[in-house]
Design goal:
about 700 residues, globular, six-stranded parallel sheet, 19 strands, single chain, about 40% helix, alpha/beta, six-stranded mixed sheet
């Protein structure tokens, strides 16, 4: 301490300064206020009297300069600050959690306090500054955890092996994967001009600000199947429309990141987003989508001198197959007029990721009663629209079903192939097997499915408002079974009159006489139907079928019919549970959204040994990815889930091999019983001579 005081009183002789520098520094003792106070006082004097040497003297003298004093901070003071900060943060978190809870449960108490009309006015009266703050959430960057991982990206490893871009890449996203923004709206939604009504946090802002207004803007005209009067939503353009659904939830983001790691950029990578509510032919009619896609591919081929690789996911597969049929059809027959060599010249590789080639069973209950179970593909809507049973979110199944029925895309994804693929009531049943509980030895029992819908009618004269599944056995009649064809007829009969365009188009596609397989029909509605339309006559094309397996997937349903419930007369019968049934839903193998028969039949059998459907004998390669649930909201690096497979590292590696010119080196891999299933389906399909003859 004496040395420090001396230095503060003025310059010291050289020897004294050296001694002072070499003197032991004072040791500050934890928890001793007296020592801390003395040190603080000495440091105040040191700052007042110390004189720093000039830079030139410091360079010459080095140690002769006076050292800068060190400020000591009390440990007790630091503890007090930390405790205060912790208490403050915990109170803020508790307040926010409470506000969120009250907000989500408000439908259960709000109508007791003020009417719905006043609720809407209050919700629309949110201050401008708060609206601006919420809108700024749209600019949040994607929460990409790859940068935080020490594990190399598949793209980095591929680059190290010498993989470089060869084919320009065209991305065709799937259902609900493209962002939609408002270009024209009703009075309640005009302030959302050019803001996302689907995708990014802006969607949540629009929904929770005025949910009725948001739902109205998301619907299409039930008669025309396109825009309703005064409302115009359009797809966002560019890669940002398809990479991340919201921050932290990727769609194409992981694949785009790995394509960038091997050398792709905006000049060699093109995304083709679209309004996923529209049916394929309505997309061309309203937006000229396929005309623009054709021009984009031709431009990329012209610039780079090599054909493109098309990557499609989910509903994007249906659009891609529609496009390949449309582009080679003459313009006077409703096509793009590219000629029968267009595909061979412009497309080298087609990568089909989890495509529902034979449709999706869950499209039936979605249109019939607005109900869905999981959180993949169509199930993404479930949480966002408040459809999860027991959740504290507003919205009803009935209003959701009304919205779904206006979307032509939902009708186009209805199951195809009839009872010979999806099972009949005869002795054969379904070609795929389902688990029916355990036998006496504890082994899983499997068996054929002999219905698509099993329906029991509620006997209670007043079914209005009753919750499906809460009745006793005495309240309902014995169930009756419907095949897929009968279930589709029920759907068309109940809702076809209110949705004439969708019902007219898809009734004849799914139930009518459409001609023989491979017969070259020119009905635009049937373009791309794998059971009817042949693949392009493109000998240079290669097709990869990549999909997940091993995850329970919706296959058939138990329903309750309540004739006097005008809002929702048909509802999922959640009282049926156990023995292979999960709350009214019968499950089978698949990727969580699409059953194995729809994912794999065409790739495993339909296109392989049928020259009518594959005249050029295009090589088909299957790669199955066994579902392995991992950590995180999207189940980790090896998920086989319908959506989360887009982050599966093995699938990304296969995509990189295909686009860099090594598709022929990819070896087929199957882990499911897709081959046996496909052979059985093919045997059943051979028994029919024409569509529409007999029970489909």
């Amino acid at each position: 301490h004496g040395a420090r005081v001396a230095s503060a009183s003025g310059p010291m002789p050289r020897a004294s300064a050296t001694a002072a520098d070499d003197a032991p520094k004072p040791t500050r003792r934890r928890g001793n206020p007296a020592v801390a106070s003395d040190d603080d006082a000495l440091e105040t004097k040191s700052r007042a009297g110390a004189r720093s040497p000039s830079p030139s003297k410091a360079r010459r003298g080095g140690a002769r300069g006076v050292k800068s004093p060190v400020k000591y901070v009390s440990v007790r003071s630091m503890k007090k600050r930390f405790i205060f900060l912790r208490i403050l943060l915990s109170r803020v978190a508790f307040f926010l959690a409470g506000m969120c809870f009250l907000f989500y449960v408000r439908p259960y108490y709000a109508h007791y306090i003020y009417p719905e009309s006043m609720q809407s006015r209050v919700e629309r009266s949110i201050p401008t500054w708060l609206n601006s703050t919420l809108h700024s959430l749209n600019e949040l960057p994607a929460l990409n955890t790859s940068a935080l991982s020490s594990v190399p990206l598949p793209g980095q490893l591929a680059y190290a092996r010498g993989r470089r871009p060869k084919h320009p890449v065209v991305i065709v996203p799937g259902f609900v994967s493209s962002g939609l923004e408002l270009w024209e709206g009703l009075r309640c939604g005009k302030h959302f001009f050019r803001q996302r009504m689907w995708g990014t946090p802006a969607m949540a802002r629009a929904y929770f600000t005025d949910r009725a207004c948001w739902m109205q803007h998301m619907r299409l005209d039930p008669t025309t199947g396109i825009d309703p009067p005064g409302i115009k939503l359009r797809a966002v353009t560019g890669l940002e429309a398809v990479d991340w659904f919201v921050p932290g939830y990727f769609v194409w983001g992981k694949i785009i990141e790995n394509l960038g790691a091997v050398g792709y950029d905006v000049n060699t990578l093109h995304a083709a987003p679209y309004d996923w509510r529209l049916s394929p032919h309505a997309l061309q009619e309203r937006d000229g989508y396929f005309t623009r896609l054709k021009a984009s591919i031709e431009t990329m081929v012209s610039l780079h001198g090599v054909p493109v690789a098309v990557l499609a996911h989910s509903y994007g597969d249906q659009l891609t197959r529609y496009f390949l049929r449309w582009v080679e059809t003459p313009t006077n027959k409703g096509g793009g007029g590219g000629g029968n060599k267009w595909t061979d010249k412009h497309v080298a590789v087609y990568v089909n990721i989890a495509g529902p080639m034979l449709g999706i069973p869950k499209a039936v209950p979605s249109l019939l009663s607005g109900e869905m179970r999981d959180t993949a593909l169509l199930g993404q809507l479930e949480g966002l629209l408040g459809l999860t049973a027991g959740s504290f979110v507003s919205g009803t199944f009935g209003s959701a079903a009304q919205t779904f029925r206006t979307w032509g895309s939902m009708w186009s994804m209805l199951p195809r192939g009839g009872s010979r693929i999806w099972g009949g009531t005869d002795a054969d049943g379904s070609p795929d097997t389902i688990v029916r509980g355990d036998d006496d030895d504890g082994d899983a029992k499997v068996g054929a499915l002999r219905h698509f819908l099993s329906v029991r009618t509620k006997k209670d004269a007043d079914g209005a408002g009753a919750d499906a599944g809460n009745e006793t056995d005495e309240d309902a009649s014995p169930p009756y079974n419907l095949t897929i064809a009968s279930a589709l007829r029920l759907l068309f009969e109940r809702h076809g009159e209110d949705h004439p365009r969708n019902a007219k188009d898809y009734r004849r596609v799914l139930l009518g006489d459409r001609g023989r397989r491979g017969g070259g029909g020119v009905d635009p509605v049937t373009f791309g139907d794998p059971l009817v339309d042949a693949l392009p006559n493109a000998k240079k094309l290669r097709i990869l079928c990549l999909y997940g397996v091993g995850k329970p997937t919706e296959r058939a349903y138990h329903y309750v019919h309540r004739p006097n419930n005008t809002d929702r007369p048909f509802a999922l019968d959640v009282s049926v549970h156990g023995n292979g049934v999960d709350r009214g839903v019968i499950l089978t193998d698949g990727d969580g959204s699409i059953p194995l028969v729809s994912l794999g039949y065409m790739c495993a059998r339909g296109w392989r040994r049928d020259d009518a459907l594959n005249p050029a004998r295009i090589p088909i390669t299957i790669r199955e990815y066994e579902h392995k649930s991992g950590w995180g909201i999207q189940e980790g690096r090896y998920s086989g889930d319908h959506v989360n497979i887009m982050g599966n590292v093995e699938m990304i590696e296969d995509v990189l091999e295909a686009v860099t010119g090594h598709a022929g080196e990819i070896r087929e891999r199957t882990t499911s019983r897709v081959r046996e299933l496909s052979e059985e389906v093919h045997r059943r399909l051979r028994r029919r001579s024409r569509w529409g003859e007999g029970e489909l």
